[in-house]
Amino acid sequence: MRTDWLAHSVLCAGVLLFALPVWLVLAGSTQPADAIARGELSLVPDLRGLGIYADVLRAGGPGVTPLWRMLLVSFGMALAIALGKIVISVLSAYAVAFFRWPGRTLAFWVIFLTLMLPVEVRIIPTYSVMAGLGLINSFTGLTLPLIASATATLLFRQVFLAVPDELVEAARMDGAGPLRFLRDILLPVSAPNLAALFVILFVYGWNQYLWPLLVATDPRLDTVVIGIVKMIGSEAQTEWNRVMAAAVLALLPPVAVVLLMQRWFVKGLAEGDK
Fold it and tell me: Nearest Cα to 244, choosing from 78, 65, 55?
């Protein structure tokens, strides 16, 4: 019983630690900007200030693209990155796990070694390639360099290697070809892992800042993360209630994805530990 109280106390403290900043932003978004600038931030939201959300969604901030457009760009970018990473990772893991071809082990280790190279290390050559292909200031240039994932490839490889050999032989005896085996057996078996990985990769794509900042100088391609940064001018000129309202709206899509896919997300993580 004592252990249960200790565990629940730690969990409650963790919830407060993460929820309090979000609550402060939510409450501050409904209060006047001059009150926030004076440090008179109340913990109680002012319901009369909820109209700021419609205003920010429609107009954004001074010299900033409307927030609804930035949300659409961010959503499209996150969705393209998540789906692209999953498709490429599934196919590459399938090739490494089930096909016998020269250099298979070398290819696996090359993929593994890319984990040692963060995006910041290869940002300059990646930008050079995108510029050479004429993809600067395009949605393709915004998403294409980010759709390969060594982590996802390694995850799916481990999932595929756990498939019993008897199942593979049974599919072969039934005349299932490689694509049919992948579609009818491997993908349903790894569905929870697909869902869990989709949630992680969607949030990863949604929070991208450095690459969109470099490759997209056109304001029409601003993501919501970049838009919030642009809304923060000098300390005296920043309308903090608008910035906070934009931050709250930016939280909603990834939170919605996590909540909608929570059951599959937890199941995928639990099965990944086995």
Answer: 55
